[in-house]
Amino acid sequence: MSSSSRAEDARRREEMAAAALRNESVAAQVLVDEFVATAKERGLVPEPLRAQLMDGTRVKSDQVGWYVNKARTLAIAPDGRFYQLLTTGGRLARFTGVKLRPSPPPLVVGRGGRDGETGDLADFLQRALSDYAV
């Protein structure tokens, strides 16, 4: 096998993996949008989101939304954007807060992670609705 055909195969595998991730995010966004609609129907008020710096410090952010996991490291904004709340930040972040960037939602939360909070996004969203309803 020539190096050009190996490179071509590698490129093709990368493209297929990227397409699979896009398809997963599209399916996950449907679940997120349903969560937001249900939260609004139930009158659940979004709260100011706090991000967690790599050293464990919690800081304010520029977003509001609903936390979807017990560690409060994942959240959904009222407009349906998905946020991972683990972030980097300098010393000033404790005073100024952080600007969050949305990311594509996954169908499986914590895939490959070792923090114990893994599972289907649908389960996390259902649990979050139950937790906020209390």
Task: From the structure above, extract its key features.
134 residues, globular, 42% helix, two-stranded antiparallel sheet, 7 strands, five-stranded mixed sheet, alpha+beta
Overview of this protein structure:
- The protein has 134 residues and is α+β, with helices and mostly antiparallel strands.
- The protein is 42% helix and 22% strand.
- It is built from three helices and seven strands; from the N terminus they run αβββββαββα.
- The strands form two sheets. It has a five-stranded mixed β-sheet. The chain has a two-stranded antiparallel sheet with strand order 6-7.
- It starts with a helix and ends with a helix.
The major β-sheet equals: 5 strands, mixed
Secondary structural class: alpha+beta
Number of strands: 7
Task: State mean pLDDT (0 to 100 scale).
Answer: 88
Task: Note the gap between the termini.
Answer: 61 Å
Helix content: 40-55%
Radius of gyration: 18 Å
**Low-confidence segments:** none
Q: What string gives the helices and strands in order?
A: HEEEEEHEEH
Sheet with most strands: strand arrangement: 4-3-2-1-5
**Alpha plus pi helix count:** 3
Q: Note the beta-strand portion.
A: 15-25%
